[in-house]
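Subject: Neurofibromin structure
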Amino acid sequence: MGTQKPGEWANSLISRFEEQLPYKTGAQNLHSRINEEQCKACLVQISHHRFSLVIAGLTKILQRVNELYQPTITTCVNRPQTETEKGYHDSLVIVLDTLEICLSSQPKDTAKYEEAMNVKILLREVCQFIDLRNETNVNNTLLRQLASKVLFALSLNFFNAVFNRISARLQELASSSEENPDYTDIELIQHVNVDILRLIRLLTESIQKFKLLRKSTHIVLVVSLEKAVWNWMDTYPQEFAEVQCRPNDELSKCCDTLFDILQDSFSDNKKSRVAMWPLQIMLLVLNPKVLEEIVNADSGAPCSPRHSKKKHFIDAVKRGLSPQNNSKQMTEAAVVTCVKLCKASTYLNIADSGNVTFVLVKSVINDLKSLLFNPSKPYARGAPCPGYSELDLLTDCFVSLFRIMPHSNDALKVCLNLNTHISYHYVIVNSLLRIIKQPRLPWWPQIELLYPRAAELRVMFTDTLNKATQGYIVHTPLRMISLSLKSKEVQSKFNKSEEMPVYRHLLLLLVKLIHADPMVMLSNPGRSGVEIQSSTTELINGLVSLVHNTGMGDIAQEAMDALLALHRPDRVHMWNPEAPLNTFWDISSQVLYNISQKLIQRQIGNYREVLRWLRDVLTCRNEFLVKHKEYANVGSHIPICKQAHIKLEVVFFMCLWSIDTEAVLVAMSRKLRRPCADTPLECLDDLFRALYESA
């Protein structure tokens, strides 16, 4: 191998990578996953020096697997994948993920001609995944999300290739008379990496073609442009902040022109408002001088006649929120528009309270809260907005309110109340997950501000756990559940009937929340040590019950991740700060005992994953004990510790006798052998007796 040319060696590695994909090898085990990850890491490193070769090789693999996968795609939501289909799907996931990493790791502005040619081929292939329309199929949704990431990474260095494809399609649609044209290439706008210059370029192209397009194309283009604006703000927030301080003349001109085009084209079309108004408010936010003139006009300041359309627009939005408004369509359009306005204001430093956007937000925020967070009348839209569910809407509003007014409790109280509609419970959990996971701007408040509400979240977790495990069914005619909870993640979990396992999915989100930040449910300010230990025990026991619940599937895996997060040494101390060691030995031993007992009784199906998880839990336990080695045995002389140790040893011996090679290797691993050395002599008789009884 050492005498081969670098290109030959790289091609050999690409071939090896393909041979290790699930569509070639079948279902992956621990070692095949490790091999695949190592091979992927090598390809990423090689792509730094042989970018064109690696991208070309991965694109060919993607083509081959996709040709095999396409005939198996089904619109049936509930039918499980066959092993063959799963192999194709998992292989596509791995290849798309590898492509995204390779494209992201290439230095910006280093593209060469031959690389650009390969990228055109890749672009054509990836567009097929963007066009997977059946969002009720969770497998298609995952591929679409990964393809979006590939496009985002690809457009960083190869924006011209993507832009030319978008421009060409706009030109075709401008002269086309097709009844049902393909909009996939227009929707690429939603997935590209745009800085301010690229955004101006997209807006300019859209302005030139807009009046030549049909109304149906207008909707797709407007929705896509709005998404591009948000992508820009998320990726380059400093450019957005700069525009607010020193407006960009070229951007301002584009925003001004496009706003007027939209106003002239759709001012009399009430049905199109919900699609047009959100982009129009963003165009005004990006043009702060004009917005300031319009807002100040309410205080008697002069307003130029050429901005009268924009002034009428702002007035119409405010009327749409008013309780006196009788038009449901106008209310829906105004609600979506004002939520987007509030969200945009969070990208401005909260210290700059005099900014015109904040002034406008203050004028609508109370009416908005009254409409969206009214427990006696949960908000439900008459018609869904393209790509924007009610769950997205309410989550955006809650997160924005938290960032604008972090100490306001109005929406929080509604969402945490167990007696309010379950849609509000979804909103609070979804919002907390976003606050935790979304990359922060410096002025955004920290999640720690909400730690004092941990007790209420624990009550929600326990209540949801009980209802989900008892097969609790929600009977509701409200469209909030049947239509609006159709974000990509939620939608795939629901059946079409009114009786949907909404509590089960809420439980999954709650467990993900614990995994993301255990402190949102561990915090116990002002409580006694006994109360703290009791609440921690209830929380952890609830998660343990999910691990060995055979009907919980993906929730069981997430519960294992949450328990592992709770076992991190810095979190164990919070189980009961007044007596951390005593509480650790008591609760952690209960966890090991219960899981080991289920493994011994063969009541856990995914035992390989549980074994690996046990290994990781024991590693965390050892790290915690090493950290407190001077008094590590405090509280360890209780019956449950001895019982858990015995059960654990039985599990390991059973695994050593197993015909499953992977189980044997996990049981023999150094991390699992360590507890054996600490087994006291007095436990041996009990251990051998237990082994005999389990045989």
